[in-house]
Amino acid sequence: MNDLAAPSPRRIAVAPMLDWTDRHCRHFHRLLAPHAWLYTEMVTTGALLFGDVARHLRFGEAEHPVALQLGGSEPEDLARCAALAEEWGYDEVNLNCGCPSERVQRGAFGACLMNEPKLVADCITAMRGATTLPVTVKHRIGIDRIEDYTFVHDFVDMVAGAGCRTFIVHARNAWLKGLSPKENREIPPLRYEVAHQLKRDFPEYEFLLNGGLADTQAIRVQLEHMDGVMIGREAYHNPWILAEWEQAFCDPAWQPERREIISGMVAYAACEAREHGTPLRAICRHMLGLANGLPGAKNYRRLLSDPDALRTAGPELLEDAWNCVRQPG
């Protein structure tokens, strides 16, 4: 059920994942799914305003479309960082209102911002005043024991009033105390019907569903209700499924071979080593799941995880590892 004039460009999105969705991971995912909307790891405003901007924001042209996810709660700081996102060529800037970790809470941002919708609206207003990029929000459906639909409805209503037009809904509550970030992704029950109701109540806005999606049929069902879906750990651990989703939901003619993906990553790794001194291990670590389910996958993973091989070999190690996999192409 998509009430927008055209299908969402974010029909399939890969979630921002701390320590995982760096630029090397995103390049790999782009080879698998040319139309997927990609997100950076969450970058805090402090890291950009007081740290190494290039280290956090540099990315390759091949990654487009790619969104920068920000963590912060000071409107002025977020505005400055939104301007940086546009300066560096991103396609979207996203505000994290869903992360429940204690570290994020100490910074007074992430999921705890759902308790302060007026502040979030002020942040969106400031960010939109500093950039022409779309400013979007990723949020949960509730905090701790708050399961009243009115809570998330009023949050979306106020934030939309500040000009946000795209909401990424992680369909679980966030527990700010008592659960680890991992437990927050697994223990609070998924309530997809809450996200569906938001789309019905705000049909003029774009809504993506996040949480628990792991197979093609589940995504197909949710796209009957939502404008798009966002997938996290399943896409990371079983990356070939991105190619399947590209074919199923974006481009029916898409039929890559895994060896083609390996060849693309060999070229990328060689370029990274030459131009930036990037160690091979920084790239290989994202590719361990490419051979999942195929004969020889264990040897493929073993070679790409071997510290001695990674220290001494060049990008051709990727081809050597793939030769362990007993499958044509």
UniProtKB/TrEMBL annotation:
Keywords: Flavoprotein, FMN, NADP, Nucleotide-binding, Oxidoreductase, RNA-binding, tRNA processing, tRNA-binding
One Pfam family per UniProt: Dus
Name used for this protein in its record: tRNA-dihydrouridine(20/20a) synthase
Gene: dusA
Swiss-Prot/TrEMBL catalytic activity: 5,6-dihydrouridine(20) in tRNA + NADP(+) = uridine(20) in tRNA + NADPH + H(+); 5,6-dihydrouridine(20a) in tRNA + NADP(+) = uridine(20a) in tRNA + NADPH + H(+); 5,6-dihydrouridine(20a) in tRNA + NAD(+) = uridine(20a) in tRNA + NADH + H(+); 5,6-dihydrouridine(20) in tRNA + NAD(+) = uridine(20) in tRNA + NADH + H(+)
Names of required cofactors: FMN
Function summary: Catalyzes the synthesis of 5,6-dihydrouridine (D), a modified base found in the D-loop of most tRNAs, via the reduction of the C5-C6 double bond in target uridines. Specifically modifies U20 and U20a in tRNAs.
GO molecular function, one term: tRNA binding
Active site per the UniProt annotation: 99
Positions contributing to FMN binding: 16-18, 69, 138, 170, 210-212, 232-233
Family: Belongs to the dus family.
Organism: Candidatus Dactylopiibacterium carminicum
Entry keyword Chloroplast: no
Organismal lineage: Bacteria, Pseudomonadati, Pseudomonadota, Betaproteobacteria, Rhodocyclales
Residues of the DUS-like FMN-binding domain: 14-317
Enzyme Commission number(s) of this protein: 1.3.1.91
UniProt site positions, description: Interacts with tRNA: 96, 182, 185, 301
